[in-house]
Amino acid sequence: MLASENRLRKKSDITRVFEKGRSAAGNFIFLRFAKNDLSVNRFAFVVSSKVSPKSVLRNKVKRRLREIIKKIIPETRQGFDFVIIAKPGIINKKFENIQKEINEIFDFKFDKIIQKKHF
Predict the structure, then answer these.
(1) CA 27, CA 98: separation in Å to the nearest integer?
(2) How many other C-beta atoms lie within 10 A of the C-beta of residue 33?
(3) Helix pair angle (55-72, 95-104), 10° resolution
(4) For the segment 31-42, what is each residue's pLDDT rounded down to a tens digit?
């Protein structure tokens, strides 16, 4: 479970990330992020019924994503809100593959966008 300070809960905050944020994508993960005025990162996870009609499988994906994010929070630049969206096909991926893709997105794509935009 993510610490409560690292959870993005309000619909208005999630909408702000979608409207004003930047994006980065992998093969089965899509990331939206926007700067917040806090000293911590906050995360929300979206796994739609397009990924799987079974809620058990969607919740499994969310648990996996939360666990991966929990490990990389200390390494990530602070002060951002993130919405992580799972794409169809993630159900068939192993935990290690999902972890590798998230690490690639955060290490290369997120950092590259941050440096270009001078957040």
Answers:
(1) 10
(2) 22
(3) 50
(4) 999 999 999 999
**Which letter does DSSP use for residue 82 in this model?**
E
CA distance 7 to 40: 10
Task: Look at residues 46, 47, 65, 51 and name the one whose alpha carbon lies nearest to residue 105.
Answer: 65
**Which positions ≥6 away from 26 have C-beta within 8 Å?**
101, 102, 104, 105, 109
What distance in Å separates the CA atoms of residue 102 and residue 119, rounded to the nearest whole number?
Answer: 21
Question: 58-91 pLDDT, tens per residue?
Answer: 999 999 999 999 999 988 889 999 999 999 999 9
For residue 44, pLDDT over 80 is answered with yes
Residue 48 token pair: 């739609």
CATH of region 4-113, choose from 2.30.30.40, 2.40.170.20, 3.30.230.10, 3.40.50.1820: 3.30.230.10
